[in-house]
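Q: How do we represent a protein-ligand complex in a form that can be generated token by token?
A: Start from the inputs.
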Amino acid sequence: MTGIGQKFYQSTKYHGQRRPDTATAPAELKTISLPAAVGPADKSFAELLAARRSRRKFAGEGISLEHLAYLLWASDGVSAPDKPTIFHTAPSAGARHPIVTYVVANRVDGIESGVYRYDAEGHSLRMLREGDFEKEAARAAADQDWMVGSAVVFVWTAVFERTTSKYKDRGYRYVFLDAGHICQNLYLACESLGLGMTSIAALVDDDVNSIVGADGVDESVVYMAALGRPADK
Ligand SMILES: Cc1cc2nc3c(=O)[nH]c(=O)nc-3n(C[C@H](O)[C@H](O)[C@H](O)COP(=O)(O)O)c2cc1C
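Then emit the structure tokens for the protein with flavin mononucleotide bound:
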């Protein structure tokens, strides 16, 4: 472990009692091309801002693959693929884009339950693990049982080197700021689709890492979110 940034990151991890099934850097099982992301246009931006809330009560219903594709693109998809520097919907210090989006699909129509990594440049999902990880994700988020019933859990990891290679230890600050931008995009995109969501930072870092196959040092979780059709709509 070198540098004050990595020491800070490791020293502020939560540690749990349990070791869930570990999966280190799982091989990709298959690629799912996503539909073009087209969002609804019936609410003004000011209305979305005013309506945004953290919502934790889910109906236990699925969402469509089209909606998931929109949420992935809106949160941190590529908005300008044809420029020399690739630009995303979320800003990133130095355009380094250290954040990787994984989804734990619990209830998404048309795709199997499992763990997927979002390829923003290809706008596709790479399946990493097939199976039901709904309860394991809630346990890894420090036993936040309200997550059970969600359609999708987003897991954002950081590949620190992408940012620290340019900014050294100061880059650790930027990585967390980048994640915040992405998460707020997701909050507003959910609101626009009538979905409920809550962001999650109370998590047992290495339990979450083991779900997505991150090593906890070079790549490690920084933030999560659970979303779905709200129970009260
Ligand atoms: C960095 C951060 C971490 C959070 N972590 C959690 C969490 O682990 N569990 C949870 O239920 N809510 C979490 N929240 C949601 C906050 O509790 C919520 O934003 C706050 O109560 C304000 O409510 P609002 O989002 O509806 O405005 C988190 C929010 C932020 C910004």
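The two ends are 48 Å apart (CA to CA). Residues 171-193 form the longest helix (23 residues).
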